[in-house]
Design goal:
The structure holds two protein chains of two kinds.
Chain A: E1 2-11, E2 14-24, E3 29-33, H1 40-48, E4 53-62, E5 65-66, H2 72-77, E6 80-83, E7 90-94, H3 95-109, H4 117-130, H5 135-139, E8 141-142, H6 148-162, E9 166-170, H7 178-192, E10 202-207, E11 220-225, E12 228-233, H8 235-250
Parallel strand pairs in A: 3-10, 3-11, 6-9, 9-10
Antiparallel strand pairs in A: 1-2, 1-4, 4-5, 7-8, 11-12
Chain B: H1 17-21, H2 25-28, E1 31-36, E2 41-48, E3 54-62, E4 67-74, E5 80-88, E6 93-102, E7 107-116, E8 122-131, E9 136-145, E10 153-162, E11 168-177, E12 183-192, H3 195-203, H4 208-224, H5 230-242
Parallel strand pairs in B: 1-3, 2-4, 3-5, 4-6, 5-7, 6-8, 7-9, 8-10, 9-11, 10-12
Classes of the chains: A alpha/beta, B alpha/beta.
Pfam family, one (chain B): SUFBD_core
Protein name (chain B): SufD family Fe-S cluster assembly protein
InterPro entries (chain B): Fe-S_cluster_assembly_SufBD, SUF_FeS_clus_asmbl_SufBD_core, SUF_FeS_clus_asmbl_SufBD_sf
Chain lengths: ~250, ~250
Amino acid sequence: MLKITDLHATVGETEILRGLTLEVNAGEVHAIMGPNGAGKSTLAYVLGGRPGYEVTSGSVEFMGQDLLAMDPHERAAAGLFLGFQYPVEIPGVSNVQFLREALNAQRSARGEALLSGGDFLKLAKEKAALLKLDMDMLKRNVNVGFSGGEKKRNEMVQMGILDPALAVLDETDSGLDIDALRVVGEGINAIMRQREGGPGKGVLLITHYQRLLDYVQPDFVHVLSKGRIVKSGGADLALELEREGYEAVAA
Amino acid sequence: MTHMPTIRDEDWRYADGDALASLTPSDLDVWHDVVLEPGETRAKDLVLDDSHPGIHRARLTVGEGARAEIFAIASAAAYTRLELEVRLARGAHFQFGGVTIGGGEATREFVTRVTHAEPEATSEQVVRSVHWGQATGNFLGRIEVARDAQKTDAVQDFKGLILEKGASTNAKPELEIFADDVKCAHGAAIGQMDETARFYMAARGLPPEAARKLLVRAFIADAFAAHSDAEAQESLLDNALATLGDAV
């Protein structure tokens, strides 16, 4: 589904990713852990196509296509979802309006029928309930006046509505209290886990801590350090990292 | 003889000098005089697009407790100026919402002179400017509060959005207050499109043009928010946004 090969990327003059290689197959949950400054968020932004994050060499293949050749909105329509560490506030634009336009833009790019206002609201209500986010909040302006935890839950509601093939979640667990962490973890499972007969989905969880992984069990855990993956393992690796620290494990 | 304005005149300082040079006295002598009787409410939507460029001038005399509402778009491809002189009697209200929007090389401007002549009158003016190319958008807003016009409440709010380097906006608020128990507020801000918001919207699948349209719509919506007719409000918004079609 996602195949990253020897990826190098710079932000400004600084090289942040230095030869990162990683493959995510349908049905797999991968966790990427690592210390501050290792390049975790840069990886997320490079995959999303954020301006200012320049790929200098390497390749990224997504669902058989060259991801790096696509514009950010085309990546979304192709099935990539980027969960933001700091979701953006957009005054004057309501969540409902924003998401309906976004979903219909994606559907139109894929040659699918557009969703009517009524059908969209039904879908939005269902996903908001899943994440225990009050429907009234979806009528408000995008993330304006939302608490840190509400913003992260709103990201997951958006993911539920857009129903991507691959979710890259950048520190979705930061800023969440214990209850919200459980709700978000269960939400990720409900939205992104393989369903009987459904299409295979992939998840790339970027996180500092092991705690989200209690709810979203990863199939693979990778340690990112200085712009490349220095160690990979199973779910046990996250526990080992939590116990002994990055320095001891990744050395 | 009518004095022909140049950009050395204070009220014309941001106008298009070349366009002023080609004016004739008849362009300036047409004042629409509008009188609102006490207690009357009157509203007017003005779309100054390519079918109505040039100078438009109106004098509004708003009677006691009356309410005058004007919502305007200046989007023509040539020099366009809307001038409003408003005199408010006791307890009267003046509501103005204006949007200058467009590219090319044109200057589009609103010039208002609101006189709170008697006590307890209120006024609210909300102007938004969105420009690209070499275009200019201006708001010159003058508020005069007469000596005995106590309890005046006047608000002016201007925001400019520059979509491209080369475009510009100017705001010139002027307050002249001779009473002591009044509230007069004005604010002006000029900025560029929020790139973080644009990337966030793109990451959710919105193409750049759709994201820009949504952000510009949100930006100018404040100008028409006080419109009492929701349908007319939508149609003004759509009308202003249609101009955006040719923006880069």
